[in-house]
Design a protein that fits this description.
Chain B: Keywords: Repeat, Signal, Ubl conjugation pathway. The complex is a heterodimer of chains A (about 260) and B (about 425). By secondary structure, chain A is mostly helical. Chain A has helices at about 1-15, 15-35, 40-70, 70-75, 85-115, 120-150, 150-180, 185-195, 200-210, 215-225, 230-255. Classes of the chains: A mainly alpha (about 260), B mainly beta (about 425).
């Protein structure tokens, strides 16, 4: 598996797309810092970008890579290699290279700006950690979709739909249900609904760390009480890890039984 | 002739003050060992000089016109036994004393200095520490409270007092005081024609300044920072608020300025910076807001309802999460010629005024007003999308709530 991981990883490292992706984040970081001159503000803007773009690129890239390397996969399948290690290796290769582009691309400008001497270091590292998690989660989901659909067009369609659902539609439904049930106590409901969507969970985790959390008022206080404790932080990290593990498990099972 | 008459009046005044008025001294080796003793023995219009040292005294009652001056910071220590100085006479001056350890009581409001039903008092250069109430003015008129430093150590709202409290007073000047860590920095109740200027009221448990049922008052050039909730002005009319700074009142239940039932007032040239809510307005009519700066607040202005005929003109709204929040669909307030940093319009005729109107109320802030729990979706992509669609064609927010002439550049207030 490690060999395939390594191969996928270096294959992607050589490809144009990961450079474009890396350069995009590098440019974004530089421009943000240059325009803002304020680290914590830059972190807020960056958060908006990360919780939308990272899942999108993760899904699209994952699906694209799977379909593009299909012939190579078939070649590998003819060799005496374990099936699961082929797919898991590919998945991990893609997500590692994407996560690395993100972390290094954003890390370099912030390091040069002096993030290590700033109090925003924890917010920033939380941002990178959640960004990396989102990459792993959405690449895994993309692989699941790609494995389930032979048809490329269908696969891409489902992948986009998945992203749309997680990033936009889920919040819409969330908002509607909050407004519909406004006469009931909604603290627990909103906590659980937030936990269930990795995009929302990352957003709330970062928001609570920033000054802006005071805007959240009473609801914010409930959330702060939950996420502010170690227990809450562990639960939310566990939730993110679970979001990585479950799709990976599905990839594992699908890879075993899939017909080529 | 006129000059001569003025001159003679001044001369007469000078003569009259110097004609009676002996000097008494209080110190360890003087005739008078304690202030209480000196006050008892003094004749009206005498001056008592309190020398350096610590005096353990409380319940000093002044019932005749006196001037008490502290030299080299004498300390009066009340040993937490009760009130320190009570003034019940006109023309009393107290200057340069340090008063510590005022008693705490839940039935009587012990104060470091209390003025009861007196006129022409002057309290200045006092340092009050470890106190319950600081300066308590009760039904007293025409006095001055200048350059005092009040530092409390309040922990709980129920067991602490206010820095400067005015109750049924008229025509009092409160200037240049520094008030920290008490319950309310300055508290006014039923007090009219009060001038509050150049004070710094910060780090207080509740409000920096608190107004109740007080009309025709002015407060200018004050700084209110880091207070538990901010400044509250309630149930008052004809208030002028100018050149004040409200900053860092940051917390889930904080605001810079709370207006409740305030009518016919003027709010101008103030700076609201980094408050959760810049101004929280409720039931206020005919108030004009001009030349204010709202910077980096969560909400710049939150309008809670029953607000009519208010005018917002020539203000700068800079980088607030929400500019205006509104909870009704009816609008009777005017927004005119403000600068909004969130404005995205254009100016084809280059007259400095945007060609398309600006809508300061976002749909999301309307939703949050209805269902506060939805705030958890702050900065979600979905919210940005519905905000954008509402901006293009308003359905929920009042469609006449707009600034027809938004400016393209921030206003410089002169």
């Amino acid at each position: 598996m490690l060999k395939i991981l390594k191969y996928s990883f270096f294959d992607l490292m050589r490809s144009r797309w990961s450079y474009v992706y890396f350069l995009f984040y590098l440019l974004l970081g530089v421009v943000l810092l240059f325009l803002n001159n304020d680290l914590s503000k830059a972190v807020i803007t960056l958060m908006n970008v990360i919780i939308i773009l990272v899942p999108l690129i993760g899904t699209i890239f994952g699906v694209m890579y799977y379909y593009n390397s299909r012939e190579f996969t078939e070649l590998l399948l003819a060799q005496p290699v374990k099936r699961s290690s082929i797919f898991l290796g590919q998945y991990l290769g893609v997500s590692f290279s994407l996560a690395m582009s993100l972390v290094i691309g954003l890390g370099i400008p912030f390091i040069f700006y002096g993030i290590f001497n700033s109090s925003a270091i924890w917010d920033f590292s939380l941002l990178l950690i959640t960004g990396a998690f989102l990459t792993f989660i959405f690449t895994a989901l993309a692989f699941v979709i790609a494995l389930a659909n032979e048809n490329k067009i269908k696969g891409f369609g489902y992948a986009i739909l998945l992203w749309l659902f997680m990033a936009v539609i889920y919040d819409g439904l969330f908002l509607m249900s909050l407004m519909y049930f406004e006469n009931y106590p909604l603290d627990k409901f909103s906590l659980i609904a937030t936990m269930l969507n990795p995009v929302d969970l990352s957003r709330v985790l970062i928001l609570l760390k920033l000054d802006i959390s005071a805007l959240l008022g009473y609801t914010g206080a409930v959330f702060q009480k939950f996420f502010g404790t170690n227990f809450g932080l562990i639960i939310s990290l566990a939730m993110l890890i679970l979001w990585v593990l479950i799709p990976t498990g599905i990839i594992y099972r699908m890879a075993k039984t899939k017909d080529f | 002739m006129k000059h001569l008459s003025y001159f003679s009046i001044i001369l007469l005044l000078l003569l009259s003050t110097s004609s009676y008025g002996n000097d008494l001294e209080v110190c360890k080796s003087c005739t008078y060992k304690s202030i209480k003793e000196a006050v008892e023995k003094a004749a009206p219009f005498d001056t008592i000089y309190v020398k350096e040292g610590t005096y353990y005294e409380f319940n000093i009652e002044i019932t005749k016109p006196l001037t008490i001056i502290g030299e080299n910071n004498p300390i009066i220590d009340g040993k937490n036994k009760g009130e320190i100085i009570t003034i019940q006479a006109d023309n009393v001056t107290i200057d340069g004393l340090t008063i510590v350890n005022v008693g705490t009581s839940y039935t009587t409001d012990f104060a470091a200095v209390r003025v009861v039903k007196s006129e022409n008092f002057l309290l200045q250069n006092l340092k009050l520490q470890k106190l319950f109430f600081g300066i308590y003015l009760e039904k007293s008129n025409n006095g001055k409270v200048l350059n005092n430093t009040i530092t409390g150590d309040a922990v709980h709202e129920y067991s602490s007092g206010n820095g400067i409290q005015l109750w049924y007073c008229r025509n009092v000047e409160v200037r240049g005081n520094t008030i920290k860590k008490v319950r309310d920095g300055i508290y006014l109740e039923f007090s009219d024609e009060i001038l509050i200027s150049d004070n710094n009221s910060s780090g207080n448990l509740r409000y920096g300044l608190h107004f109740m049922f007080s009309n025709h008052d002015t407060y200018i050039n004050n700084v209110f920072a880091n207070n538990g909730a901010g400044v509250a002005v309630m149930f008052s009319k004809f208030i002028i608020m100018k050149n004040n700074t409200f900053k860092k009142n940051w917390g889930s239940a904080s605001f810079g300025l709370l207006l409740k039932e305030i009518n016919d007032s003027e709010i101008s040239h103030n700076t609201f910076e980094e408050n959760t809510v810049g101004i929280n307005v409720e039931g206020s009519n005919r108030v004009t807001y001009t030349h204010n700066d709202f910077k980096n607040n969560g909400w710049a202005i939150k309008v809670r309802g029953a607000c009519y005929f208010n005018v917002f003109e020539k203000n700068n709204f800079l980088y607030n999460s929400f500019d205006i929040s509104y909870n009704s669909r009816i609008n009777d307030n005017k927004f005119h010629g403000n600068y909004w940093s969130n404005y995205t319009g254009y100016d084809l005729d280059k007259d400095g005024i945007g060609d398309i109107p600006y809508r300061p109320v976002k749909l999301f802030s309307y939703i949050v007003n209805r269902t506060p729990e939805t705030i958890i979706l702050l900065r979600s992509l979905f919210i940005d999308i519905i905000d954008f669609s509402e901006k293009v064609s308003p359905v929920f927010t009042p469609d006449n709530l707009l600034d027809e002439n938004p400016l393209l550049k921030p206003i410089r207030h002169d």
